[in-house]
Structure formats: structure tokens, C-alpha cells
Amino acid sequence: MQKPLAEFTQAQQNRVIMAKAKCAEISSQHKASQAAQQQAAMAPHLQRVMMVQETAQRQRAFQLMCRVYVGSISFDMREDQVRQAFVPFGPIKSIDLAWDNVTMKHKGFAFVEYECPEAAQLALDQMNGAMLGGRNIKCGRPSSMPAAAPVIAQLTAEAEAYNRIYVGSVHSDLTELDLRSVFEAFGQIVTLQLAPDAMPGRHRGFAFIDYDSKQSCVDAVQAMNLFDLGGQYLRVRMAMTAPVPIGASPGMPFLPPASATPSVNPAVAANTAPLVAAQIQSQIGANANPGISGITGMGLGTSVSLSGGLAAGLAPQGMAGAAGGLAGTAGLAGAAGLAGAGGLAGAAAAGGLAAAGGLSGLQAQLQQLQQAAQLAQLQALGTNGAESAAALPLPTPVTGTASSSTSDSSVVMLRNMVTPDEVDDELEDEVKDECSRYGNVRRVVVHTEEVQGEIDVKIFVCFTEHHEAEKARESLSGRLFAGRTVHAEFFDQARFEAGQLNG
After folding, report:
1. Average confidence (pLDDT) over 9-25
2. DSSP assignment of 236-251, as one string?
3. What residues contact residue 259 under an 8 Å CB cut-off, 6+ apart?
4. Residue 237: how many CB atoms within 10 A of its CB?
5. Could you give phi then psi for residue 36, rounded to 5 degrees?
6. What is the rounded CA–CA span in Å between residue 421 and residue 424?
């Protein structure tokens, strides 16, 4: 029979308790050390991911700042006529004119995307309520813009640190030296750059000017906006975004340049600029541009005589003379430099027209820097080219129209939910009632199209907020409905608003 173990003495029990406490302390220190090492190893990775996301968000916000919604468009107007009305404010990247495949006419609204946010804001300020094609058009911002409001506020705050203005609708015959001779009357110019065109020796009709003081910018905007220079009314406003330093990532914060105190009398500057402009005007007139028969004066409210016999005055904030209005049999006419029965008036509109597919020098540089920075950051994470596109939180096309980005879209596309025979007038209301449990449903659109000989039914559900659409997508995707598996995915917000549902 085995003897029972002797009981520990009090001293032995105390030593056991101390040994256990020491083991627990060593174990806790080891776990804390491992956690600190893992956190230190993950820090560079997390920093790179956050930098890529911030860069992508800034790029998305920049694109939204460049877009303008145009509603109440006459059904008789064509896309080229809309372009002619809006191009004086700056180069247009694209125009999405919503098209109705049933009536074979557009739906009366469009999205105009500029290459510069300053041009979009000028168009919004001056074209809202303007007469175009016999109707007063309505201009506004895309519905998805509030979602990017914090990033947009950051971009505009960075621009406030710079003494920078945007100058649009610059005549094609004017040079940087001509612009400098006019705008230096308001203060010392640090930099002046006319956006270069793809054709050597030409520019794209807009420029950015950096002054040495904020007051110079204010004076220049007040005196030169809608100023007739060379037969075209300049569009001038404060810059809305900061310039991108060479070699810097667009996602990095911008450092404000050194500023100097203003030393120019605004009254003297306002009187000097027209004198210089008159000299430039005489030089342009010597080139015998066929589209301009004469200039009766310089300054705001100037009366311009065009070859079509139109005389139009333009007030500082008004659009009198139909700056975007239709005149003649097929063309636009007015103070914006558009005249004639068949199209544009020569040199009066030459500086305002730019290739819609190209990018200005500044915008091209911005996008190149953004792409290079994102690619370098993704390669540092060990991703390949295919993974890089998926890693960016930007709208990435899937099957042509659907977007895999969940950053801001509030539209869910449902497929395989009903057959073509089940589509009726009550379907939209039924889907709206069903989806209302996930959030506030703004709109439901049932769209049918022919795909490889078969009719495909798509149901688009637009919610008020993105998180509501996310909840609906997660709940409805893979759900059985009348024996069919429903496919739910996000759809690009801009394409939905533009009515581009095919694909």
C-alpha cells in the first residue's frame, strides 16, 4: 500500500504560490511582446493601405467636383449643342446625355464632366436658370456628392493656402506673355501656366495664375471675370484645388508657399488692365479673324459685334444675350462667343473649344502622379497588376456596368428575380415594399434588355444611404424567390443617374 503524500509546509506553499505568479507574469510579458512585434510589423502595411485609400478617395472626390448635372434640356437639342453651351467655362471631359431606347430621344438631362473643378463651379454658377433651346435649364451637383463632402472640404481647405486663380475661355491667339501683361496689373505673378495642347505651340483655352498675395487674387477675380479679352469673355474664379508638387503623391498634404504683402492699388489695377487688353485686342484684330467684325469697347457689359449681326451685352453675373441660348437655324449664338446660322463664330469661340477626350497638362500630371503613386504602393504590398485594380477603392467595372466598389453607391441591381412574363405595372411597387425594410427607397427601375437572344430583366433599387444598400445587397444576394436564386450587386451611381442601364 502506497504511503500518502506528505502535506506541504506553509513555507513550501508560499514558494509554490510565488512560482505560479512568476510563471503568469512571464507568460503575460511574452504575449505582450508578441503583440507589439506583430503590431510593429503590420504598421508599414497598414500605413500603405491607408495611403492608397486616401489617394483613391481624393481622386474620387476630384471627379465629383468636376461633374455638373444639367436638367430640363430641350428634347430637340443634341449633345454637340450642349457642349457648345458649356465649353466656354473650361475643357469638357465627357457628356453623358441620358438616352431613352424606346422613344429614341434623350430624357432631358445630362451630366457634364469637366477636367477642372473650377470650370464645373463656374458653369453651375452662371448656367443655372439660363435659357437654352427655348427652356430654362437647371444645373446642380450629382446626388453622390454629399458622400464625399469631407474629402472635398479637405481639398478646398488645401487650396485656401494658395494665392491661385483659374482663368477660362482664353482666346486661342493669346499667349502666356499676353495674359501676364494683363493680370500682373493686380499684383506680382509668381507662376502663370496656360494648359498646353497636344499640338505644339497651342493651348487649351484655360490657365492657372499664382499671385504673391490673396488680395491680388480677389482683385483679379472681381475685375476680370466676364471681361472681354480678344472677343471672348474670360471666366475667372479662385482655384478650388491646390497644385500637385512635382514628385509628391496626391494623397499627401500640400505645403503652402511663402506669401508676400500686397503692394498694388486695386483701383489702379482695374484701370490698367483694360489698357493692356486694348493693345492685345488690336494685335488680334490685325490677324483678321473672320468670326469677329469689330469690338466696340473693353470691359464688363461690353457690346460685341459678331459676323452673324448679333450684338449682345453681358452683365457681370447675368447671362443676357443668351450666353448659352439657341439662335439662328442650327447653331448657338450669344455673348459666350457662339454665333451664326450654322455653327461657331471663328475666333470668338476658338479659344473655348478643346478636345473632349484629352487632358490638360495640369490634369494629366495629376492623374499620372496618382496612378504612379497607387501602383508603387500596391506593388510594395506584393500585389500583381490584376490584384492592384481590385485593391483600389474606386469603381471597378464588372460586366460592363456593375461596379464592385462599395465606397459610395446607393444603388443595388437585382437579377434573376422575375421572368419577362412576370413584369407588370405593380412590380416596382412590390419591390419597393419588399426593400423598404432595409432603408428608405428613393426609386425603383425595372429594365429589360436583350442579351444573346434572351430577355434579361434587371431591377434597380436606389436607396438614400449607402449603408441601406449594403444591408439590402447582403440580405437579397443568394435568396430564393419563386424557385430562382436572386443575384444582388452594387451598380454605379453615376450611370444609374444618367440612365445608362444596358450592359
Report:
1. 87
2. EEE-SSPPPPTT--TT
3. 163, 212, 213, 214
4. 18
5. -65, -40
6. 8
Instruction: Please tell me the total number of residues recorded for the chain in this structure.
Output: 503
Tell me if residue 432 falls in helix, strand or coil: helix
The residues with which 68 forms a beta bridge, in sequence order, are 112
Question: What are the DSSP calls for 27-76, one per residue?
Answer: HHHHHHHHHHHHHHHHHHHHHHHHHHHHHHHHHHHHHHHTEEEEES--TT
Residue 436 half-sphere exposure toward CB, CA atoms < 13 A: 9
How many Cβ atoms sit within 10 Å of the Cβ of residue 157? 11
CA distance linking residue 468 with residue 451, whole number of Å? 30
| Helix 176-183 × helix 214-224 angle, to 10° | 100
Alpha carbon 261 to its chain centroid, in Å, reads: 34
> What count of other Cβ atoms lies within 10 Å of the Cβ of residue 282?
10
Q: Is residue 279's pLDDT more than 80?
A: no
Percent of the chain with pLDDT over 90: 28
First to last CA, the chain: 88
For residue 241, how many C-alpha atoms fall within 13 Å in the half-sphere facing its CB? 25
**∠224-226-230 over CA atoms, to 5°?**
85
336 Cα distance to chain centroid? 24
User: In whole angstroms, what is the distance from residue 205 CA to residue 394 CA?
Assistant: 30
pTM of the model: 0.47
Strand partners, 191: 210
* DSSP letters for 250-272: TTSPPPPPP-------HHHHHHH
Cell of residue 448, nine digits:
429589360
Residue 472 has pLDDT above 70, yes or no: yes
User: How much of the chain is helix, strand and coil, in % rounded to 5?
Assistant: 40, 25, 35
Asked if residues 152 and 74 have their Cβ atoms less than 8 Å apart, the reply is no
User: Angle between the 149-160 and 10-65 helix axes, to the nearest 10 degrees?
Assistant: 70
Instruction: Between 222 and 405, name the one with better pLDDT.
Output: 222
Radius of gyration from C-alpha coordinates of the chain: 30
Residue with cell 405593380: 426
* Residue 460, amino acid: F
The H helix count followed by the E strand count for the chain is: 13, 25
Q: Which three cell numbers stand for residue 10?
A: 506553509
In sequence order, the β-bridge partners of residue 238 are: 165
What is residue 428's predicted lDDT score, i.e. its pLDDT? 87
DSSP state letter for 348: H
Top-confidence residue, 308 or 124: 124
Maximum CA extent, the chain:
128
Q: Are 322 and 313 in contact (CB under 8 A)?
A: no
Whole-angstrom distance, CA of residue 456 vs CA of residue 251: 41
